[in-house]
Amino acid sequence: MARRKQNGSPLDVFFEILLLFPWWVTLILGSGLWVYLKWQPSPTGFTLEKPVMIWYGLQFLKWSCFLAAFISGIKTLSRKSLFASAKGIEAIRAMSWREFETLVGEAYRRQGYAVEETGGGGADGGIDLILRGKGQKVLVQCKQWKTVKVGVKIVREMYGVKVAERSDRVILVSSGAYTPDAVAFARGKPIELVDGKALVALIREVKGASQAVAVVPSCPVCGAEMVLRRAKRGANAGDAFWGCPRYPACRGVVEVR
Predict the structure, then answer these.
(1) What is the CA angle 178-183-187, rounded to 5?
(2) Each residue of 143-158: pLDDT tens digit?
(3) Which CATH number describes the domain made up of 89-208?
(4) Are strands 114-117 and 129-133 parallel, antiparallel or unpaired?
(5) Measuring CA to CA, how many Å separate 72 from each of 15, 109, 156?
(6) Which residues contact residue 84 at a Cβ distance below 8 angstroms, ignoring those fewer than 6 apart?
(7) pLDDT tens across 165-197, in order?
(8) How far apart are CA 229 and CA 245, in angstroms?
């Protein structure tokens, strides 16, 4: 979804609403108006008569729909290209914060969520995405931090935002990692911490079943096809890893890359 302008004119707000729809929806609407108006007599001049005003209004709506369809289509192609380029953590960390936010939004969009890019976070914080779907409203903050771990203060702040916004849960997505205090604070709360490794796993998962199968490793101990798991305790709590399906009989582990 497009970013909503906080203090735009009515026309800005109207166009932002059009951009919320998929490109094909506004294209169909614009085409329908084009067909309808083609068979309507065009006014000879501009007057304040109601039929004339409606005619010009529909013309404006038609061209607005075509423009929105074009912009949405370009954005869709751009998101798909960016998503395809995210083949590993290094590629993700090389992105700008805006590209990172777009990537995260596309990952959840492909999970079936309606994604609103709020534009409220920027490079350093705030609510970046609002996910709606599956009966939930989810707030997402993206942290494109390459070296610094996300601390407990930020997790506490997001929990406070969740309460204030009355959302169902919050997700923090980082290209790096979280401090042990941050992981401890999130435990047992409607807070999901997605680190760089888990994000790579999520992207691979939503890219499709065939691609997902191709990247599933075999257990280095017994050779069985491994399953994606998440550490529940210890220094690596919250991190994703490949574990052997025969655990505890086999304790083979492969790091998510």
Answers:
(1) 155
(2) 988 778 999 999 999 9
(3) 3.40.1350.10
(4) antiparallel
(5) 11, 14, 35
(6) none
(7) 999 999 999 999 999 999 999 999 999 999 998
(8) 10
